[in-house]
């Protein structure tokens, strides 16, 4: 399923999410963006449109890229900007 060079997918997802962050997207949405990017990469690139396996692999990629702890912390943290 994974090749050695596929390890570059994680930093690639992190980099794309960082671009979203720098363009002003609220940090609460960054884990969701990471998850969606992971699923897209998983379905299209890793599993060649095998939807079931692609979503599973993509979810692992997206969650790994964003960090499970920081994702849940940012999502459920009280917003002080209101």
Automatic annotation (TrEMBL):
Membrane-spanning residues: 29-47
Keyword entries, A-Z: Membrane, Transmembrane, Transmembrane helix
Top-level division of the source organism's lineage: Bacteria
Tagged with keyword Transmembrane: yes
Protein name: Holin
Organism of origin: Sporosarcina ureilytica
